[in-house]
Amino acid sequence: MSHLTFDDLKQIITECAGQDEQLPLGEDALDTTFSDLGYDSLAVLETAAAVTQRCAVELADDEFTVLSTPREVLDRVNGAVVRPA
Question: Which of 53, 70, 78, 84 makes a 20 to 30 Å CA pair with 47?
Answer without folding.
Answer: 84
